[in-house]
Amino acid sequence: MPNQNLHTDRVARLSSLLPNCGHENAAAMITSPVNIRYFTGFATDTGYLLLTPRAAYFLTDKRYDEAARGAITSAEVVGFSSLADSLLEILGGEAIQHLLIETDVVTLAQFERLKELLSPVTIVGDAALCKEIKRMRESKSAAEIEAIRHAQEITELSFSHILGEIREGVSERELSLELEFFMRRNGAEKVAFDLIVASGENGSMPHAVPSERRIKSGDFITFDIGAVYGGYHSDMTRTVAFGSITSEQRAVYETVREAQARAMEYLFAGGRTASLCDKAAREYIEQHGYGKNFTHSTGHGVGLEIHENPTVSYLSKGEIVSGSVITVEPGIYIEGQFGVRTENMLYVSDSEVFSFTSIGSELIIL
Ligand SMILES: [Mn+2]
Hints:
The chain is an alpha+beta fold. It is built from 10 helices and 19 strands. Strand 5, helix 5 and strand 6 (122-125) form a beta-alpha-beta unit. Helix 7 (142-163) packs across helix 8 and helix 9 (247-268) runs antiparallel to helix 10.
C-alpha cells in the first residue's frame, strides 16, 4: 500500500514552491507517469496531476477513475468526461493564470493542444519544475530504499538461478527469457529493462540484444539484469566465464574488477564528486591500456526509472547528492572478441555508503 504521508508530503513540498516560481498565480500539471507515481503512489499511464497553491487534483478518465480513488490519498480524484472542461473549472475557480508543465515530458503537439484548450490560461514549459522534481527524486527515503533492496533481492535470486541453466548450446534468448520468467514468478512487477545476455563476441556491445547465439566453451557471458518492485528498479551486471578462457580474458576481467573496486572505494572513503568517482575507475583502465575500450560512463542513478540523476561520468559536474542510489559499472569491450562489465548498485549518503549488491565480483567460471 502506498505510504500516505509520504505522497502528501511530496505534493506539499512541490506545491509550496508555486508562489515563488516566477509566474503569477501559477499551478503545475504533471503528466509523466513516473512522476505521477512519485507524488501519488498510483501506477498509471494516463492521468493529470494538477497542483495549485491550495489543493491537489488527479484528473483521469472513467477507465481509471475507480482504481485511482482507491489508491490515491495525496490528491482529490476527478473523473472527467472532458479534460478541458474539468481543468478550466478548477483553474478558473482558483484564479490560476499560469499553468506550468514538464518540459521533459510534454510533446510539442500536446503543448499546442493545451494552449488551445485552456486559452485563458498561459501554458508555461517550465524547466525548473522538472529540475525540482528530479532533485526531489534523487534523494531516496527509507521506503524507497526498501523497495530497491527488494528489487535487488529478486535480481540476485534470478542470477543464482540462471547460473544453473547455463550449458553448451543454450542460446542467449533462452537465458534471457528464463531470467524474465523467474523474476516475475518471484515477485517482480516487471523486468527493469530489456535484459541483456551477451556472450562471446556479442559481449563487446555494451547494450547487446539477446540473440540466437549459442553458448560455447571459452565464452564470457555478460548478464545485465534488473527487476522492478513497487515501482523501483534494480540494476546489476556480472560477466561469467564458460569453460576455459584465455589469459587475456582473465587479465581484462581483473582490470575491470579492480577498476570497479577503486570507484567504490572512492565513495566508501567519503568522496562525493561524481567526476572523480568516474576517474577512479577510468584511470585504472587507462593505465592498463584499455582506455579506448571503456566507452561509457561509470554509473547512473536508479529509482523509479532505470536511468535517473545523478550521472557518474567524467563530464559530471558537482557532488553526488546525499541519499542517492547509483551504479558503479566500468567495462572493457574488445570489438569482435569479447566484453566484460561488472555493476553494483550503491546507496550514497552523508552518513553511510553501502552496496545493494551482495554477490561478489570474483570471476565465476562454469
Ligand atoms: Mn546500469
